[in-house]
Amino acid sequence: MGSDMSTGLDLSVVIPLYNEADNLRPLHDALAQALPKTSRTFEIILVNDGSRDGSEELLAEIAASDQTVRVLNLRRNFGQTAAIMAGLDHARGNIIVPLDGDLQNDPEDIPALLDKLEEGYDVVSGWRKNRQDDNRRSFVSRVANRIISMISGVHLHDYGCTLKAYRREVIEGVRLYGEMHRFVPIYATWQGGRVTEIVVNHRPRTAGKSKYGFNRIFKVVFDLMVVQFLMRYDTKPIYVFGLVGAISILISFLGGLAALYLRFFEGTSLIQTPLPLLSALTFLTGVICILMGLMAELLVRVYYESQGKATYLIKRTSDSPDRPDAG
Ligand code: UDP
Ligand code: MG
Known about the structure:
single chain, alpha/beta, Spore Coat Polysaccharide Biosynthesis Protein SpsA, Chain A, seven-stranded mixed β-sheet, 10 helices, elongated, binds uridine-5'-diphosphate, binds magnesium ion
């Protein structure tokens, strides 16, 4: 994404595609049906994430037949989040709508998402209330969504739904790693954006295969930890490391005192209890934690100062009421 805020184009639809050849034509047809109903100028960005099923040729044909379509062919398979990121980087629209390319998301939902955005939101997230995946998966994802909601304090039913609508400003500058596309609403809230959700259609996959297995859960859990850490302690890592270090040193002292008590009042020999060992280990852990915290503080300063980044975000100022401060 360029840093210019106004691009002249209303809407960019961004679609990650990995081995979806059989879905491409129906997908394009569905988009060509749905998007004109938004009465906005739009572009469709199809990101071919290293498919090896002839998608590239088919996509070239589609792009040649429709001037609203732009195709990005990635060099190899980088994963869904990276593919979406590539699309965001090339999007020119003032509103950006990513969706899955397997037709499980329904392009007919896009007009409703945009209407909701117009009510004054910065992010409208899709909620696949009537989800068409197997039961085990739906269950796991319900539990996961509860946990993410609780931890992040951003209350949505369905983080995993790719279909969302964003105002350009709230994702300008966001970099996505791992499986993090699902956490953009959290990121947006953190940037001061207003977030809501609406129920969207969800359909079973009719062609191609799902690219994910059970291991996604672990990735999502770790990504959430990172997001959470960055959100709370972005500029003050010493608070986290320092707290853990302090607790560890406290345990060390308590263990040490207990050992001395046992030695002098109960006559227990110091090698008969694990307490001295515990005390030494927790002391070391504590010191290392605090040193890591100080290192992290250095990193934060390097990060912000070397890139001239501010530790705050300005919505608007009195001398430029209509434009966020571009720096
Ligand atoms: N996808 C991708 N790169 C990948 C894996 C998936 O671009 O490495 C795309 C895929 O083609 C689809 C979307 O991401 O358009 C969602 O993938 P999938 O349907 O397999 O996920 P599920 O619906 O099973 O969660
Ligand atoms: Mg799917």
